[in-house]
């Protein structure tokens, strides 16, 4: 009774102080939420209509007139149809400009912004499949309107969509908000620079005389799993533009790379190079992005990992984080500042004694690649991988660029800001030099293989 009375008194006091009862405040809050949602949806619609108007007037109509002039006399159709999943999983027929590719082909999609059947930012556009098996998988994803721009399409452009489409769609749905959509649209602009719908089917591409793997993260992990099962030793290295520049000047490094079983493309520089050489990459695969997949696979296969490299204490910290996050066994750790003239034997013995199946070496390029190749015959682990600054990221020593920056190909800008003294030359001088070398290689390669 006294509890009830004090609760009543508290409510009366609250009403006296604020002027409103709790129930009334709840209604007000719900009303405010409904109004703000309706308002933000209205703003989004207005922006979409403004974009649709601008694109229609300044791009679609001129392209349409040009296509009419070319296609009509030849008796060819102007549009081709594509049926995709619309909102609520219903089929939606879109028109593409027939005979055009990439963004130009999909210009007519902007007209769907007027009808409201497509959003500017939304879930990914996906081909309609009438089979009932496809519908449940699409599930709640279909409740959100598909968009000309999607998180999936942006990640695919920068070739870092390692988690797969469905997981990316769910990430988008959980984050969906007008502000997030707006930022997504901004992100889509630089991503268009390296967008390429079709990846090259070739399993590798040649750059500066090197054979670089062209595969998805899943294929790379499958390949490592197979090497583990067959107890076949594989040296796997990653190359970014800085590595490629170093390989031109440093013969030993170049030879170490050539001796690897697989060289994998790390970063947006290699994605751009692949595009320039007419072999658009399937995915950009770097050690840091690969680690979660590698550890999960190693844990499934009950294999352990040895971490070698980094400043004293760094590999320990990284090992703790990795073991905790991915439930994988860390067989041993060792810093990378031992004397590589006199202490190799002891380090190699420690690695072999640990029975690790995977050895990650983080001395930075070219030290790690040269060390692995020089000692591979003495080392027991099946997988020998050079991983650069990876332990620094996983120990929390150095923060990795946020994902949205990586998605627009600007991870290197973040690295310059973090360590300007060490990084500016690598990127500010190195990136243009790399692109120049790619262009030169393209001309030379094409003239020698016409
Ligand atoms: N490092 C090492 N031993 C050495 C020199 C460097 O273990 O003798 C480590 C260093 O502490 C750092 C990593 O190697 O953790 C190199 O990082 P960097 O960012 O330069 O590598 P990248 O990924 O750029 O190749």
Describe this structure in words.
This protein has 450 residues and is of the alpha/beta class. The protein is 55% helix and 13% strand. It is globular, with a radius of gyration of 27 Å. The structure holds uridine-5'-diphosphate. The site of uridine-5'-diphosphate (UDP) has 14 residues, from helix 17. The site of uridine-5'-diphosphate has 14 residues, from helix 17.
Tell me, rounded to a whole number, the average pLDDT. Answer: 89
Molecules bound to protein: uridine-5'-diphosphate
Helix content: 55-70%
Q: Which stretches are low in confidence, meaning pLDDT under 50 for 5 or more residues running?
A: none
Number of distinct beta strands: 12
Largest sheet: 6 strands, parallel
**Tally of separate helices:** 20
**C-alpha termini separation:** 95 Å
In total, how many domains does the architecture comprise?
A: 2
DSSP strand (E) fraction? 5-15%
User: What is the gyration radius calculated from CA atoms?
Assistant: 27 Å
Shape field: globular
- Give the strand order of the largest sheet, numbering strands 1, 2, ... along the chain: 8-7-12-11-9-10
**Assembly status:** single chain
Q: In terms of structural class, how would the helical and strand content be classed?
A: alpha/beta
């Amino acid at each position: 009774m006294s509890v009830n009375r004090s609760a009543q008194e508290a409510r009366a006091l609250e009403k006296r102080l604020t002027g409103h009862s709790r129930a009334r405040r709840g209604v007000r809050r719900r009303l405010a939420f409904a109004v703000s949602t309706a308002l933000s949806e209205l703003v989004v619609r207005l922006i979409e209509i403004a974009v649709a108007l601008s694109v229609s007037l300044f791009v679609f109509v001129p392209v349409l007139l040009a296509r009419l002039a070319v296609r009509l006399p030849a008796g060819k159709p102007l549009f081709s149809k594509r049926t995709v999943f619309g909102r609520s999983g219903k089929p939606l027929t879109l028109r593409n400009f027939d005979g055009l590719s990439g963004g130009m082909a999909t210009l007519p999609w902007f007209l769907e912004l007027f009808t409201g059947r497509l959003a500017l930012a939304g879930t990914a556009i996906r081909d309609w499949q009438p089979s009932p098996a496809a519908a449940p998988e699409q599930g709640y994803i279909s409740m959100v309107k598909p968009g000309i721009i999607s998180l999936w399409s942006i990640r695919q452009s920068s070739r870092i969509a390692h988690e797969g489409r469905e997981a990316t769609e769910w990430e988008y749905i959980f984050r969906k908000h007008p502000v997030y959509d707006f930022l997504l649209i901004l992100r889509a602009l630089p991503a268009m620079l390296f967008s390429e719908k079709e990846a090259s089917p070739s399993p590798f591409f040649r750059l500066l005389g090197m054979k670089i793997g062209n595969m998805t993260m899943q294929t790379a992990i499958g390949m490592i799993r197979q090497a583990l099962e067959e107890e076949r030793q594989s040296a796997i290295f990653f190359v970014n533009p800085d590595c490629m520049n170093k390989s031109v000047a440093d013969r030993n490094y170049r030879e170490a790379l050539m001796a690897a079983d697989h060289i994998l493309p790390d970063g947006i520089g290699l994605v751009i190079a692949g595009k320039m050489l007419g072999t658009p990459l399937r995915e950009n695969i770097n050690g840091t992005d690969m680690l979660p997949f590698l550890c999960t696979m190693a844990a499934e296969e009950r294999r352990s990992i040895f971490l070698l490299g980094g400043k004293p204490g760094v590999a320990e910290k990284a090992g703790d984080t990795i073991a905790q996050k991915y439930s994988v066994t860390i067989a041993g750790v060792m810093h990378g500042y031992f004397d590589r003239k006199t202490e190799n034997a002891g380090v190699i013995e420690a690695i072999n004694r640990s029975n690790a199946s995977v050895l990650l070496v983080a001395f930075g390029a070219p030290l790690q690649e040269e060390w692995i190749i020089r000692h591979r015959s003495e080392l027991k682990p099946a997988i020998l991988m050079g991983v650069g600054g990876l332990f620094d990221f996983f120990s929390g020593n150095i923060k990795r660029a946020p994902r949205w920056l990586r998605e627009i190909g600007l991870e290197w800008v973040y690295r310059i800001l973090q360590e300007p003294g060490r990084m500016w030359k690598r990127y500010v001088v190195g990136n243009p030099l790399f692109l120049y070398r790619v262009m030169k290689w393209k001309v030379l390669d094409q003239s020698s293989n016409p």
